[in-house]
């Protein structure tokens, strides 16, 4: 086993001994060199004595051996270093290849990074320009929104003004319509009542029949329409029931209404006297049918209690062609009073006002039913 092999074996067991072995080899070379120098520096007689005694030869042999050994060690060391260099050169070449590839990749990456940086810079400029454009658009939109808010407020104010004007026009139109309706109702009232006062209408009928039919004529005409419109505009009775007291005063002021009876009188007796004043059964039947007798509920107008008793008395007196049926007023009063309460006695003033009010109320209710699209039968 050579020196280098023994050193390797030792280093395998004790790795830290490699440095010491290297130092020891270097020291041995140094000592050999010193011996050579020592021999070279001996005197003549020293070298002579050495040759005689053989000491010089031994030293020469030892020196030669050391030199040979050192040379072998250096050769082995150099061989080892050569082998290691070959391996190292292969590793270095492999690493160099990786380094070259890495350098290429790095260079390409740098180029891409530079290109990306340029693109990013350009994109940043575009984004900055876009941000400026967005800010400008937002500012313009804010300005437009403020302008729209101003216009909206102005339009709202104009709409309010127009609504006020529309309401004023509607109120004015309603006043004009009400005024025209009042005037037409007034004209109709004066004409209708004037004809009766002149004796040109209902003259052949008994006085009570004249009152009932005159009232029905007034309220089925323009005066009834006025009550419907005025009542819808104002709940106050005084504002829409203006023609009722006016008609009552007109009837009571007529000479035919004077001296009928004094104070209060029983209603059945008044109805019997009425039946006695009827000319014949046809006349009694005509008045009764005008007041709704014989009509189906869908077409009949619901009468007040006194008007119903009156029409019932006339209807009873006209049956079987007998207009002089005894006491039809008593029977009619009893039947009517079973359905709704009515006073047992009444004055002339009370009779007129009650008949006028009943006809007005009945026609107003019929107009309300027609306005709602409800038949009288349904509304009952």
Q: How would you describe this protein?
A:
With 380 residues, the chain is an all-alpha fold. It folds into two domains: 3-112; 202-379, no CATH class. It has helices at 3-13, 17-40, 44-53, 55-197, 207-220, 222-233, 237-240, 243-253, 267-277, 281-290, 305-318, 328-339, 348-372, 376-379; strands spanning 265-266, 345-346. It has a two-stranded antiparallel ribbon. The relative contact order is 0.06. The mean pLDDT is 82.
Quick rundown:
The chain folds into 2 domains: 3-112; 202-379, no CATH class. Helices cover 80% and strands 1% of the residues. The protein has helices at 3-13, 17-40, 44-53, 55-197, 207-220, 222-233, 237-240, 243-253, 267-277, 281-290, 305-318, 328-339, 348-372, 376-379, and strands at residues 265-266, 345-346.
Spans of 5+ residues with little confidence (pLDDT < 50)?
Answer: none
As a percent range, the share of strand residues is: under 5%
Number of helices: 14
Shape: rod-shaped
As an assembly, this protein is single chain
Major pleated sheet: 2 strands, antiparallel
| Strand arrangement in the largest pleated sheet | 1-2
* Overall tally of domains: 2
Class from helix and strand fractions? mainly alpha
The overall average pLDDT, rounded, is: 82
Q: Indicate the percent of residues in helices.
A: over 70%
